[in-house]
Amino acid sequence: MVYPFPSGFEWGVATSAYQIEGAAESRGASVWDSFSQTPGRVLNGDTGAIACDHLHRFRDDIALMAELGVRHYRFSLSWPRILPEGRGATNPAGLAFYSELVDTLLAYGITPHITLFHWDSPQALEDDYGSWRSRQMAQDFADYVAIAVKHLGDRVNHWITLNEIFCFTHLGYGVNQVPEMAPGTVVPTLKQVWQTSHHALLAHGLGCQAIRANTPQPCTVALVDNYLATVPLADTLDHVAAAQAAFSTVGTNGGIIVPALTGAYSPQLLETLGENAPDIQPGDLTTIHQPLDALGFNVYTGLYVRAANTPQGYEVLPFPCGYPRLHMPWLHVVPDSLYWGVRHISDTLNRPDLRVFISENGCAAQDTLTNQGEVLDLDRIEYLRQYLRSAHRAASEGYPLTGYFLWSFLDNFEWAYGRDRRFGITYIDYATQQRIPKASFHWYASCVQENRVL
User: Fold this and answer.
1) pLDDT at position 111, please?
2) Superfamily of domain covering 3-228+291-298+335-453
């Protein structure tokens, strides 16, 4: 069967600043510097101080990206590289680096899509007021956004405010236990965790306003979220209804993607949280519910749901021990999650007007070099093939899916797993920083060239 995508479908790859840039000495400290330097926090004691040394090798990396054939690249700016203290004086060298990065991309005919925050918040703001625990963080973020857009907006017209609010708030702040992500802050109540994600939503809203107030040309503004996609056990009316009912209540969906796209928290979530619900000041929801030009969906796995005789009318099904997964404990292979994640935005949240792009999709695999110097990551190719077929289904049924950014272009610093888990289609030999395209690199290049799933 042939799986063609519509003409103009945007094929790309994605990375983030802390995970690839390195050159930590030439920017301000981030919370991930502090977190990764704390013994026991990151596997093998790895840090992002060097990572892929992309800051010094970006020209070669972009040339390799051009060989891949993609015409779109999603990357993030490091807030502390631009504002070492989080606010106040800028770092001219940091701004110059991003300016040259953008110019190099454009010279190769690659469109930049900039994420303004991908988890590496300035350590100075954590020290000053606890970063996301304070409403001040939202305003400082907006001020930083204004600087970035003024500096790069003459050449960049695709902006993303925040990446995966759930991960840097609910996984970064833990109730009476050290959480698994930076800043690794222990708080006494669940309410304080929900307050951090509320402040992040405010940052998103103020960031949208700052982009539009400071861009020198028309641009698109997006949010990227890794909301949980509820997948019906079978594509029947009862199970589909169950998956739709579950969508706004599973995980943190009802307190992140729902208010961002509808202007209100899920009533069921607020009822469940009770006294742990975040404090919402007058006007907050209006600020949060900014008009968006697109939504980025980061999708790796999903949840199976079936209709059930429960008060909610559904049941979330656990994964059995033998269910296939790749090289992360949470990375169960659920290709239909991509299709349903796109469909839920149009049908369940009633936002058929909002175009969606896959801002991240990929997998960690146990990549090794053969004696011939190849990486034959057939497991990654099969994973990507199945998810791209799910993307094809969404597009062919008329859902507004407009692009796909593979995670990730390079192996990189994989947060609490350090260098141990490889998500890239390009292998990094960290001892030499040599780049070795994997089998998946060449397979994806063919998909891009032919605009279809192979």
Assistant:
1) 99
2) Glycosidases (3.20.20.80)
